């Protein structure tokens, strides 16, 4: 096997290894608050390795993603080290989401630019908040990233989107030993999930892009409710699958009709 065939996957491998190492180390040190950051740290490293750069003056949309998640991981680390909850935590999380939305929207610096991008800014911040409120642990993050990876592979635009989603999946799987998440652990993953889902919508904006972006959030928000109605031990995974796959089925039907 040629080494060139493996190079595109180095970001996925880095995300898995870093997440496992971070989560395992701090579990051994009995610092569960810091161990939970394994997925966010792994995601940041994986994306940086996959794209091969972290730049403060990105020219294309994917180039904005590594710095975005690195910033989210740093905010999560501050929250974890502070160990506080309540208003201060909520305020810092909101600032992190707002900063991520501003950066992904192009970093507007003048009032005309802010007015022009205000709808996009608010939508991106709301998408990040939806992820933050719904992500409760690495299992949900892995399911969301897997759905997004499947949708991007089948219907996404050209570019590194699929590999970035797989790196997100690997980072979540690496953090599986940790268990439940608080705000600090969920924040960088929520920012990354929102950015990755919104990227093709901002770049191309087709109907398929909107539906693919909806799949992970449908699973996160509707999956538990559907699982509760189904009941039983298999109810929850079935509910998640039904909720997440429904938007992708619509995309498939849309493609078949054309």
TrEMBL record:
Origin superkingdom: Bacteria
Keywords, sorted A to Z: Membrane, Transmembrane, Transmembrane helix
Where are its TM segments located?
Answer: 12-29, 34-53, 65-82, 87-105, 117-135, 147-175, 181-203, 210-231, 237-254
- Name the record gives this protein: Uncharacterized protein
What organism does the UniProt record list as the source?
Belnapia arida
């Amino acid at each position: 096997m040629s080494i060139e065939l493996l190079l595109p996957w180095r970001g996925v491998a880095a995300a898995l290894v870093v997440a496992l190492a971070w989560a395992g180390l701090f579990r051994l040190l009995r610092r569960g608050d810091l161990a939970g950051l394994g997925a966010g740290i792994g995601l940041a490293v994986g994306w940086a390795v996959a794209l091969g750069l972290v730049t403060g003056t990105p020219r294309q949309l994917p180039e904005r993603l590594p710095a975005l998640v690195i910033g989210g991981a740093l905010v999560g680390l501050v929250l974890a080290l502070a160990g506080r909850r309540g208003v201060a935590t909520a305020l810092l999380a909101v600032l992190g989401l707002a900063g991520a939305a501003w950066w992904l929207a192009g970093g507007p610096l003048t009032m005309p630019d802010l007015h022009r991008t205000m709808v996009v800014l608010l939508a991106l911040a709301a998408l990040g908040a939806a992820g933050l409120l719904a992500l409760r642990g690495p299992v949900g993050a892995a399911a969301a990233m897997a759905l997004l990876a499947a949708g991007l592979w089948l219907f996404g635009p050209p570019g590194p989107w699929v590999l970035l989603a797989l790196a997100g999946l690997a980072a979540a799987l690496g953090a599986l030993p940790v268990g439940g998440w608080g705000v600090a652990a969920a924040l960088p993953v929520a920012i990354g999930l929102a950015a990755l889902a919104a990227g093709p919508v901002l770049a191309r904006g087709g109907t398929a892009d909107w539906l693919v972006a909806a799949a992970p959030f449908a699973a996160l928000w509707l999956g538990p409710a559907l699982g509760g109605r189904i009941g039983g031990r298999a109810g929850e995974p079935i509910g998640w699958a039904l909720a997440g796959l429904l938007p992708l089925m619509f995309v498939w039907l849309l493609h078949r009709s054309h």
